[in-house]
Amino acid sequence: MKTYLPHYFKRIGILFVSIAFILSCISGVDDFRKGFMKGYTEQQGLDEESAKVDQSITPYFTKEESDMYANISLFFSITGFFLYLFSKEKIDDEFMQHLRLKSMLQAFIVSWIIYGTAKVFSSIIPMDGIYILQMQLIVYVILFQRNKNKELSEEEEIALRN
Fold it and tell me: At 33, phi and psi to the nearest 5?
């Protein structure tokens, strides 16, 4: 791809991912409260039947509202990662293109290994296709930054030796 978004779209992408994180936390607040109360009653030595954990907590959101926040969060997350992914680096040359391609291949392999391992050892984790895409984007961003920092530090070491 020869045309990328301007560099400032990286910041916009990070903002979108931050909004997605906040919306995701909002959508899971009821589950957090139930889990906290369940852990608290177990720590106190009470059984769940006598404590009636689920009945004592009035949810903030209905199931539909919680799902709506989760879906909006997923949209913002994927949009933010795509904005980050397709924006230029400050110095965009063939070296950066090579790092992008290398990181994309590594992210593809690593995310499918994670997915396969999760499926083998835990059938509880629901993995829809959209979540696999999100995981690939997250792994790509992490690997690209790691590869870029590693390669640039190696270049600096070579320059300092000469």
Answer: -65, -40
